[in-house]
Write a structure and sequence with these properties.
Layout: H1 3-13, E1 16-17, E2 20-25, H2 30-43, E3 47-53, H3 57-65, E4 71-76, E5 87-92, H4 97-107, E6 111-116, H5 135-138, H6 140-148, H7 156-170, E7 178-183, H8 187-193, E8 211-215, H9 220-223, H10 228-240, H11 249-268, H12 274-290, H13 298-308, H14 311-321, E9 335-336, H15 340-343, H16 359-362, H17 393-417, E10 420-423, H18 434-439, E11 447-450, E12 458-464, E13 475-479, E14 488-493, E15 500-502, E16 505-516, H19 537-548, E17 553-558, H20 564-572, E18 576-581, H21 587-593, E19 595-599, H22 605-608
Parallel strand pairs: 2-7, 3-6, 3-7, 8-9, 12-17, 17-18
Antiparallel strand pairs: 1-2, 4-5, 4-8, 10-11, 12-16, 13-14, 14-16, 15-16, 16-19
Helix pairs in contact: 2-4, 7-8, 11-14, 12-13, 13-14
């Protein structure tokens, strides 16, 4: 290959055409704002051309001078058939590549050209850009070239708009190089239009009025393309351009979720469990993939928080993601509240119902007794004798009912796994399979279900809320059922008698528990040498559940499935582990079940109802 050919290919791949250097961007995306700033600081061109309307004029400069506060330019829409006008809002976001190019151009002393002639409506092209997070992995050049392999369809509207842009560019100073920032979906139409001289575009009524407003801080969550917390991190980055973690999307999301957790604990007293964090990571990844992205947005984070924790936590996630500490209300320019429907054509909506205590709910009759408290500090602790411990019967009923629920759920899973669908022949068997019948409607056949009942019962149930690799749950105990319908139980929890709610009545939080029937058989699980190979407390409970199981199936509920070695152990013992992901169960129900009260002796049961609420 000759040197001239290599120079031509290098010039083509760099999108430099003579004195014009084209820099295509995806509007509103942080990675392109970063790249355009680095390119301008590196090349320092004399002229920077931006695909922005020329009528923005001085208002654009006023808005840029207000940064890091976010402004909006307001101008009237074109007159409709009825003569009515509506307002168009252009939000100047720090993470928008056009806004960043304008700011950086003024920093380096470059002349700014606004090349959108604004003589016609901008074509409404679908902004189907691949996730710009890929730029941090594959690089900017490969991202752009990959996009150009599958260009979007053109029409006369696109070609006319590109011709208007080309006409403005062709009028630039012929002695200076021009750095052109253009939308990625308009790059190729503009390059084609620049191949020939263009005539001035047809004129339309000029937009003479453009106003500048300050966006209300509470509106930023709805009207920004990138969520506000990420834009704030970008502002810190652009001042230093050194801390890469500030502009790493996964790291920014992690910090947003952690801040939301802190506020959630302050307002509700509840905590987000480790398994919920794991499920949120998987759920948000799947939501992002469904939307065609690699990393989820604030909307997906909020949906996951609501689905896997509750509405209160989802609200804290949305609030943390919408926080932009530089934004304040002001009188000059006027502060305006905006909604997503006023700024975008299509918006996704999510309803959150915060459940907060209300004054009327806290009111109580005068005859209702107050909760008893210690007369003197340490009074209840001195009544502990340590001779025996027992459970609180109402909680026993709740936990036993939960165990029966898990057994029924396990049976339904087994039945579903054994369900077969086949074309109708002579019998409806266990009913018509409507889904399969509709899916194969073109065949003209009816499909029916054949259910194979699972043989065997469940005798052991293990629920592991937390594997406790950090050794937070140090209270280990085993107690036996008091009658034939009550399970033997082994559990690990927080220390109950470090939080006394009454004389000899301790309150704790389960880390995990084992329930097995028939009762009165369970030895001390925690000191049994047969289970010493277990790596965690939950594995020790699983091993004991397999060992004491009298029926075929053992239910194991946990954030993640057991190690493969336990499948082998179960096979040797002629048992089968039925794993149920804990994320499939109701978070609110699990939250209530995790509380356990331990009584210091049977005599405490009579008075316990006065202290346990």
């Amino acid at each position: 290959m000759s040197g001239a050919t290599e120079d031509f290919l290098k010039e083509f791949s760099s999108l430099r055409r003579g004195r014009f250097r084209y820099f295509p961007v995806a509007p509103g995306r942080m990675e392109f704002a970063m790249e355009v700033r680095k390119a301008l600081l590196r090349e320092r061109p004399k002229i920077v051309a931006l695909e922005l309307p020329a009528f923005f004029g001085t208002r654009l400069y006023e808005a840029a001078s207000r940064f890091p506060e976010i402004s909006a330019l307001v101008y009237p829409d074109r007159l409709g058939e009825g003569g009515d006008t509506s307002a168009i809002f252009y939000i100047l976001e720090p993470c928008d590549a056009f806004v960043e190019a304008y700011r950086t151009a003024h920093e380096i002393g470059a002349e700014v050209m606004l090349i959108d002639p604004a003589v016609g409506e901008r074509p409404h092209l679908p902004d189907d850009f691949p996730d710009t997070f890929a730029i941090q992995r594959i690089g900017l050049d490969q991202y752009i070239e990959s996009y150009r392999l599958f260009p979007q369809q053109r029409n006369d509207e696109v070609n006319d708009f590109a011709a208007g842009l080309a006409w403005k560019l062709q009028g630039a100073d012929p002695l200076e190089d021009v750095f052109v920032v253009i939308s990625l979906n308009l790059l190729d139409p503009l390059l084609d239009a620049m191949e020939s001289p263009q005539e001035p575009p047809r004129k339309r009524a000029a937009i003479e009025f453009v106003d500048l407003v300050n966006v209300h801080p509470d509106s930023l969550g709805e009207v920004l393309t990138e969520y506000a917390a990420l834009q704030q991190r970008y502002e810190y980055w652009r001042k230093q351009m050194s801390d890469v973690r500030l502009i790493d999307r996964p790291a920014a999301q992690y910090d947003t979720l952690r801040r939301a957790e802190v506020e959630y604990e302050k307002t509700t007293g509840d905590k987000v469990m480790p398994y919920q964090r794991t499920l949120m990571a998987k759920f948000t990844r799947n939501l992002a993939h469904v939307s065609g992205y690699l990393v989820s947005s604030l909307y997906e984070l909020t949906v996951a928080a609501r689905s896997l924790v509750d509405d209160n936590y989802a609200w804290e996630v949305w609030k943390a993601g919408s926080l932009y500490e530089f934004q304040e209300e002001s009188r000059q320019p006027e502060t305006l509240r905006l909604s997503g429907d006023e700024v975008f054509f299509r918006t996704r909506k999510l309803k959150l119902k915060r459940r907060l205590p209300r004054p009327k709910q806290r009111m109580k009759p005068r005859t209702l007794k107050d909760r008893k408290e210690e007369g003197k500090p340490g009074e209840w602790a001195r009544e502990l004798n340590g001779n025996s411990i027992c459970s609180y019967p109402p909680e026993d009923l709740v936990i036993e009912d939960f165990g029966r629920f898990l057994k029924r759920k396990a049976h339904s899973i087994l039945t579903e796994e054994r369900t077969r669908t086949e074309p109708f022949q002579s019998s409806l068997l266990d009913g018509i399979d409507m889904r399969e019948t509709l899916r194969n409607w073109h065949e003209g056949k009816i499909y029916v279900k054949r259910l194979e009942r699972a043989s065997g019962n469940v005798s052991s149930v293990i629920v592991a809320f937390d594997e406790d690799r950090d050794d937070r749950y140090r209270y280990l105990t085993t107690w036996l059922g008091e009658h034939q319908n009550e399970s033997d139980m082994a559990f690990y929890s927080t220390e109950p008698f470090s939080q006394l709610v009454g004389p000899g009545i301790g309150r704790a939080e389960y880390g995990g528990f084992l329930m097995t029937l028939p009762s009165r058989r369970l030895w001390d699980v925690w000191n049994d040498p047969d289970y010493d190979f277990a790596e965690t407390k939950s594995e020790r409970l699983l091993m004991a559940g397999l060992d004491y199981a009298t029926d075929r199936y053992v239910v194991y509920v946990a954030p993640k499935p057991p190690r493969s070695i336990f499948r082998s152990i179960a096979t040797q013992l002629r048992r089968q582990i039925l794993y149920i992901p804990i994320g499939q169960l109701s978070p609110s129900r699990l939250k209530k079940l995790r509380v356990v009260h331990v009584l210091d002796g049977y005599e405490r049961r009579e008075m316990a109802k006065e202290f346990i609420w």
